[in-house]
């Protein structure tokens, strides 16, 4: 049985934990390592069990502590070559990933990491590079997509296979348009290399989910241009318009920005 915990999901820091009975991995380490240790202790989770770190992209809220956790626990860090280049030149990463612990993934190529079969795939964003991850363990399929400016056919294919899905619902479009952000930043957020809106998120789930999808978590909500209840209600309304009833056909939840959400047991 898989266990899933979000240790933070938003521009203040992102970090996701996935484990089997004998193995564990972390996706992104954009939270402080001291806080992560504290939260793991409170949840009865040992970082000694973690054997692999996956990175989606090289923005600070996803990589701030990746070098520190890699060094402290001698953990290999898996990312595309472009993302590793971005990590090395990002001034927010004060401790870089040691050369011997930097491991490379290629989009569309499945690798075996302990108990996990991991497939990275392209996700459009204005970072050096960006991937989502499709992870299979013990017959359970888990998919994570964050910081997505648009939805590609590749992304749709992985969503359609997932039993469990973490997907970005970053903003409400009207809040962005009418809000105080400068115009260039509004255009960045709304662009095809920006972030996924609540509406686009809901339509993507509804149009591509299979009957095997059990649970969806909305991630990376904007603090300024969204709020949890708005995201949940918008996505739920769209799902219902397609005849999909949250709480009956699937579970729908919003991940907290600055504190843990979970743990969840994924059967």
Task: Give a brief rundown of this model.
With 267 residues, this protein is α/β, with parallel strands linked by helices.
Fold and architecture overview:
There is one protein chain. The chain is an alpha/beta fold and 267 residues long. Helix content is 29%, strand content 26%. The chain has 9 helices and 14 strands. It has helices spanning 33-43, 60-63, 66-73, 81-89, 153-159, 173-178, 183-190, 198-208, 228-241, and strands at residues 2-8, 15-19, 24-27, 50-54, 77-79, 102-104, 111-113, 116-122, 131-137, 140-145, 164-168, 215-219, 251-254, 261-266. Strands 6-5-4-3-2-1-14 form a 7-stranded mixed beta sheet. Strands 7-8-9-10-11-12-13 form a 7-stranded mixed beta sheet. Strand 3 (24-27), helix 1 (33-43) and strand 4 (50-54) form a beta-alpha-beta unit. Helix 8 (198-208) packs parallel to helix 9. The mean pLDDT is 97.
């Amino acid at each position: 049985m898989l266990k899933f915990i979000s240790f933070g999901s938003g521009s203040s820091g992102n970090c996701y934990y996935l484990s089997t009975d004998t193995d564990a991995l972390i996706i992104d380490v954009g939270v402080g390592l001291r806080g992560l240790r504290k939260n793991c202790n409170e949840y009865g989770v040992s970082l000694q069990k973690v054997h692999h770190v996956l990175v989606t992209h090289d923005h600070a809220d996803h990589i701030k502590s990746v070098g520190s956790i890699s060094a402290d626990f001698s953990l290999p860090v898996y990312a595309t070559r472009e993302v590793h280049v971005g990590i090395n030149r990002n001034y927010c990463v004060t401790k870089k990933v040691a050369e011997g612990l930097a491991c490379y993934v290629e989009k569309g190529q499945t690798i075996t990491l302990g108990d996990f079969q991991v497939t990275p795939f392209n996700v459009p964003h204005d970072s050096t590079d960006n991937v989502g991850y499709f992870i299979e363990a013990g017959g359970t399929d888990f998919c994570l997509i964050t910081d997505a400016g648009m939805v590609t056919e590749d992304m749709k294919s992985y969503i359609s296979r997932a039993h469990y899905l973490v997907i970005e619902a970053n903003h409400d479009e009207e809040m962005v348009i009418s809000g105080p952000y400068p115009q260039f930043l509004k255009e960045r957020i709304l662009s095809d290399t920006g972030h996924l809106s609540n509406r686009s998120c809901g339509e993507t789930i509804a149009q591509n989910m299979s009957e095997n999808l059990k649970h969806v978590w909305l991630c990376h909500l904007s603090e300024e241009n969204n709020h949890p209840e708005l995201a949940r209600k918008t996505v739920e309304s769209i799902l219902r318009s397609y005849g999909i009833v949250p709480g009956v056909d699937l579970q729908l939840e919003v991940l907290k920005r600055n504190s843990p959400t979970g743990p969840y047991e994924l059967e």
